[in-house]
Fold each of these.
Amino acid sequence: MRALFFAIGQAFSSFWRRSFVTFLSIITITIAMVILGAFLLISLNLRGAIGSLKRQVQLEFFLKDGTTKADASSLIEAIKGERGVESVEFVTAERAKIEFIDEFGEELLEGLKRNPFPPSIRVELAKDLTMGEAVDSLAAKFKDDKLVEELSAPNRIAHSLAKASRISLILTGLWGLVLLIAATTIITNTVKLAISQRGDSIRVMQLVGASRNFVRLPFLLEGLIHGLISGSLAWAVLWGLSEAAGYVLPSIIPIPLPWNISIVLLGGAFGAIGSIIALRRYLNY
Amino acid sequence: MSVLHFDRVSKSYGKGWIALSDVSFAIEDGEFAFLVGSSGAGKSTLLSLVIMEQRPDYGLVEVAGFDSNSIKHEQIPVLRRKLGIVFQDFRLLPDMTAAENIAFALKVTGQPRKFIKRRTFELLAKMGLSHKAKSFPHELSGGEKQRIAIARALANSPLLLLADEPTGNLDPRATDELMELLLEINSQGTSILMATHNTDLIDRVPMRVLELENGVLVGDRARGAE
Ligand SMILES: Nc1ncnc2c1ncn2[C@@H]1O[C@H](COP(=O)(O)OP(=O)(O)OP(=O)(O)O)[C@@H](O)[C@H]1O
Ligand SMILES: [Mg+2]
């Protein structure tokens, strides 16, 4: 208990006395946490973007003119039974025309006597990572059906999207790992720098009979405080970044609260662990 | 009873370099002994074995109820609180005032706050440095720093005071004052082992002399009754 009070006092007094090194280590941890957080923000939004793109991926079978929903019912049922298919919808020629007018206006269709749009079957595909193959097999299976005249070709898009999202997942993991290792190294080295000035003091404390924990506690607390401050600063910076980005890309997903809290706590953990690692070589027992 | 006992102690650094070779001696309770020898003879190494900063390669060091074979890591601080240690370079904590440096040695043992305060001021008074209580080490002279270091070493009423060249950075007058202080501390019952180069001092102070030469204990002269 006494040791704890001593440690708290030491941690705070050294905070002011060694303001430059304190400043340096807080800045370092903050930068590391901001980079980690910014990366999180980017990969979060990238995945969000891919997710919403994928949701738009459809396969559309254009049918022969005059095909009715009743004519196509067995085909619809067959498609519904396929793997990776989320929903199947029959679109009449009239609706296709209305949708086109909604999107592009009436002018383009002026002068046309008959409705140029065929009826179609729209297939909504599951947001599955291996969707590319599902699309392929679906297309192959039904493109020769006697009712099917033509096939929209989103295969390539689906393929590359699936690939991109798989790669982005792997990259996210790898990058996260690299950043984490880099942050740990940088932080430990900064703390080492901060502690090296006090290496002699640590030895002296042990010479007069301070126990290992007695020596360690002030450094641990100091590291923890630096880390928590850094984490909070990083939170503020990241908030500013995503607000600023919000002006350019209004649909940006901000970092969710639990992640923000994790950044603060991770900063604290970095500070504390960095201190313990850096202290090891100065402790005689 | 002996507070310190070396039994056939050897210590080498790395492969080959022998710093201490088959050293045996004892320091009795209340005894004062000089440890002499030319530079590199092994004096500091011997003292580092006493405080268990290192362990001997062969032989046994017994000090204040602990021995080098069986002492556990977590007991080392407990041992050190029973010893007082003074160095040539003072080794005060630069961030702490004179009073805080002394108090630190008491804090680590978990003494009550009131006791720490009283004891600290008692020691400052004894060293004649009450007026420097709030000075930081860089604001003190060498002699003052050494007296603060001695006050810190005495804080926990040690069984044995170890001094490694304590007069090395002091002028003749400060040296004499320090020697007087150490003899007074010794007369109150604390055993003292003091490593020194200062032959002049040894000639004037008629106490036991342990002499090291290349890590071998070549002389042990008891001179109290000369
Ligand atoms: N940590 C170490 N690693 C390797 N060799 C060492 C180490 N410490 C001391 N030595 C060697 O051991 C020998 C004894 O050194 P020690 O410091 O005990 O001498 P000393 O008698 O205290 O000398 P001085 O009077 O100069 O302080 C020396 O030759 C020294 O070079
Ligand atoms: Mg020496």
Amino acid sequence: MKHLLTRITLAVGLAAPLLQAQADDQVERGEYLTRAADCMACHTAPGGAPFAGGLAIESPFGIIYGTNITQSKEHGIGLYTDDEFFAALTEGKRRDGANLYPAMPYTSYHLMPREDSDAIHAYLKTVAPIERDAPETSLSFPFNVRLGLTAWNLMYADDLQLKPAEDKSEAWQRGQYMVEVMGHCGECHTPRSATGAMEVDKHLSGGLLNGYLSPSLLADDLANRGWNHQDLSTFLKHGMSSQGTMFNEMYPVFHNSTQFLDDKDLAAMATYLLGDTPPAAKVVETRTLDDLNDSAKRGHQQYLNVCAGCHAPEGEGKPHIAVAMRGNTTVRLDDPRNLLRVIEDGIDEQQFSGFERMQPMPGFADKLDQTQLTDLLNYLRQRWGGQTGELAVSDVQKLQADKSDTHSKAD
Amino acid sequence: MAKHPLQMTINGKPVDAVDIPDDLPMIDYLHEYNNLTGSRLGCGQGICHACVVIVDNPDGTSEEVRTCITGAHYFAGKKIRTIEGHAKRDEQGVVTELNPIQLRFVDEFAFQCSYCAPGFVNAATVLVEKLQRQPVAKSQLEQVIEDSLGHHICRCTGYVRYYSATRNVLSDLGLVKEG
Ligand code: FES
Ligand code: FES
């Protein structure tokens, strides 16, 4: 009898609603985690209501639309229980049992503990319902067959596992969770196979997304591009550091996610990425003009013609206008893809915290021909990027032709 | 800074090639080497567009280029027009007749201090030339004007008068078709 009573008490205890204070805490924590997991990025269309879906995510298999995750019972997740929400987050299972497309990073979230999922759900329950359906995703065959994803999931869904952490600091362990699970950084910064699965053996070694490289986040590669612990956490917090600003796909990540993370978590992320004993950040000296090869020398004049007005003649940049080229992480990438793309496409005006601004950068795709672009790339890379090799015009042509995106995040 | 000879055509006249510093911004080249001081240095950061000149491309199109953030040597061998090149002048170089855009801007009080005016005149000129190649339907007119002048900043008068004067000049020139 006593046994039974205990059981009943326990059951009642478990089902009892959280005290108000606990519930408030849970919602607050959930809001923080929602930002850390950057749900907003895919579930909010540009200029649209928060979490109402509609963002078009390009993938090699077609366009996938972020879904409405507001409390709308008809269009959103208003009917989801905590269990169902957890299954969606960690297994990619919709309430009706259908598979979600793995643009939803359950391949990373599957390592999320139940309490964090519940907190995120608790927070999302406080978001006003938006009674609007996000556009229907329609992919080409065979990717339009959601059932087929069952097999895909069996093969890949839980490929990503946390690394053993016994001998690691507490910060490293927290950082691993924030980077790998919450931030799901690997989803973009890891190459993908033809089936769209992350190649876990090359985890964080860099991927391709919408024509741009998502650079390697491996400690040695980061250090080679001049990153140290302080700069990396500053970059996440403020969207900028002496290595440059967050642009392209990272720009919304800053706005929706990393700027809201507390200093301890940001430092933990930097600790995880660079390791408890970080490699020394490589310093690159500016090379003299005489030291450059012919193409780069010609590129110097291109630079003075169309870049120096904002980035300054000696590459030191101008505050609130344009970043420095000296020490710039994109200039220092071995792969010239991003440098070329950014010169061709330009960057829209950027806003950062504390009224910080960067002015729009025009694109030069129709201003500079392939030889001029090649010369300019050689100049930037050799002068400030620590590169000694020379790109040929054919390298630029190849990159221009390769708009392929086969390793896109949205598959 | 090293210097190199620079040659270009400004307002229809070839300019003698003299040695110009490799990093000289175009606006300084116009002001200091050619005594063409009508192009205005506003922000100096590529935003206000007070400093634009017109580049005449070999294919017959024309475009605006900001001279504050573009080096003089970018214009090597190019044909450009500045604000000084629009009006008719006598042999002494005295202005005898404004062009239709300038006239409309004056008549309609489009500007006040005029700091931005050279940029607006050049932008409207590029627009006129674009529509001369392909006239615009009336229903599109306001959007086309917005798209063509929208990046120019004026701190005095607002934009309504510039835009309506431009709309009127485009009609005067027969560049707006029904539809
Ligand atoms: S002065 Fe050139 S854009 Fe403002
Ligand atoms: S009239 Fe003064 S800035 Fe435009």
